[in-house]
Design brief:
372 residues, Immunoglobulin-like, alpha+beta, single chain, 6 helices
Length: 372
């Protein structure tokens, strides 16, 4: 317990220092003719930091702590756009965007929500996108009518004519989700999009306490918690174990859960085996070959996960399998990868907990109310 508290205090101190050394991002949003776009949404992906442009298409985001982030801009009638930034200095950054008018395809504008086929497709989309965890069961897409679905040859696609409005009554957040692409195949799925978080107003002190407890639970054992543990060399103290799987390949995976069925062909490794110094003091590089298993020993698999795995017997420690499909991945000291898609989850708990378990990137159990 003492070692965990030490880690918490160290990271909290670092976060407080970052909050005092912040940057500003400003710019102008225009269309392809150069005309300003007012009321465009500009936000830091997966965070609670966002704003809109004024009548001249100008926006300003202040108090942004240094590190890596994805800046997203979206406006109805235009294709959304983004840029990945690594803010290294406490200064004002200028980032302009020029948005292209969106061309609507046949079937994208009018959706019949009374159609039984559409209802089945919505259920499938919700199961994959929101998830099947206990938190996901309390998460609702409030405007499903903006979704349209297509499918061919085992491939299932979804697109949204407007941002999805999602209410998570388990964690106490409203998400405005700008979905760019969603593709599901028989044994895998992927989607591209960015959420903007807004805290819900609790109806009572009891509900606020419930949300805080569930947020803490969602954070601990998450991929961000794991990355922070690796960066701070506190893997074991935080309840994680790491195993390498030399010679394993994707065909060895258990397709129901993604985790390798054979736990004998893996070897324990240390944090220093998968991370190294970056080109600057404010970054690290995840660097390892093949697959690794991440085991979180402070929490067991929940009943919903066991049902999904169709596995009888006792619950095990939460286990995830990951790989660097794009090679070494740069991460900042807050646990944010420079490339949001640089680490692939091949199953287990990291893949099981999806949008219904997602927290804003600035959330920390030990530093409530501070910026990321």
């Amino acid at each position: 317990m003492k070692r965990v508290l030490t880690f918490v205090l160290l990271v909290a101190s670092a976060q407080l220092a970052e909050a005092q050394i912040a940057a500003t991002i400003t710019g102008t949003i225009t269309d392809t003719t150069g005309a300003p776009i007012p009321q465009a949404n500009v936000f830091i992906a997966s965070s609670m930091a966002g704003t809109t442009t004024n009548d001249n298409g100008v926006y300003t985001l202040s108090g942004i702590p240094l590190g890596t982030l994805r800046l997203v801009v979206s406006s109805i009638g235009y294709e959304s756009d983004h840029v990945d930034l690594f803010l290294r200095e406490a200064r004002t950054y200028t980032q302009d965007f020029q948005l292209r008018e969106r061309i609507y395809e046949l079937g994208e504008v009018t959706v019949s929500t009374n159609n039984r086929r559409w209802q089945r497709q919505l259920e499938r989309f919700t199961t994959i996108f929101i998830g099947e965890s206990p938190n996901a069961q309390e998460t609702t897409i409030m405007n499903p009518e903006v979704l349209d679905f297509t499918g061919r040859g085992g491939e299932f696609r979804a697109q949204a004519s407007e941002p999805l409005i999602i209410e998570n009554k388990a964690l106490g957040y409203k998400l405005t989700y700008f979905l760019v692409e969603f593709i599901a195949e028989p044994t895998s799925w992927r989607w591209d999009g960015e959420p903007l978080f807004e805290p819900l107003e609790p109806s009572s002190p009891e509900e606020a306490a419930r949300w805080n407890a569930k947020r803490d639970s969602a954070f601990y054992g998450s991929f961000r918690h794991f990355l922070l543990s690796v960066i701070n060399d506190q893997v074991e103290e935080q309840g994680f174990k790491i195993y390498s799987r030399p010679g394993s390949n994707q065909r060895s995976l258990n397709l129901r859960g993604g985790v390798f069925g054979n736990q004998d062909n893996r070897y324990p490794i240390k944090a220093s085996d998968i991370i190294r110094a970056g080109q600057s003091d404010d970054e690290r590089v995840l660097d390892f070959e093949g697959f690794i298993d991440v085991v979180y020993t402070n929490e067991l698999e929940d009943a919903a996960y066991l049902r999904l795995q169709r596995r009888a017997g006792r619950a095990r420690y939460q286990t995830s399998t990951i790989r660097l499909d794009r090679g070494p991945a740069v991460v900042d000291l807050k646990g944010d990868p420079e490339d949001p898609y640089g680490v692939t989850f091949y199953g287990g708990y990291f893949a099981y907990e999806r949008t219904g378990d997602q927290l804003p990137k600035e959330y920390r159990p030990w530093i409530q109310g501070e910026s990321f």
